[in-house]
Here is the input.
Amino acid sequence: MDPLRDTLAWQFRMTWSLARDHWLPALTDHMCLWSVTPSAATIRQGEDGAWRPDWDEAPDPVPPATIGWLTWHIQWWWSETICAVGDEAILGRDAVVWPATAEGIRTELTRLAETWAAVLTSLTTNDLERPVAYPWPEPRPLRMTVAWVNSELMKNTAEIGDVVRLYHAAEQTR
Here is the structure.
């Protein structure tokens, strides 16, 4: 039994359950691409048919984002984190494409959550102290990366919830 690992895993399960049980099931293709403003960061289908995000390294101010962009963002950082923790090559932002539908992103995020849950289950106390240089340039203990994943998932889930609420409010006023 590792109390730190168990606490981090519990925190992940709690946060993921909010996304999995509350916000993700409600998504439609239209909601994923709906924008509260024309300047919102979104995903766009390229000439090759793949859906990729708008990306600006340091937008000021940070624009609102569509659910498509937010779910792609989760897909991207989670994919890269899983690679980093497994000592695999990082995919890179351009290699992560949005699956094109609400059902596709639900499936992909569920796959990533299951993979991450398995990673968490396998961690030992020594693993949690192992240095990992993701998402930061300088290595930090893996426990900090795990805590960051939980925080990032919580933040992105809340942002998706905000956009869902705005979408429904806009639909009621039409």
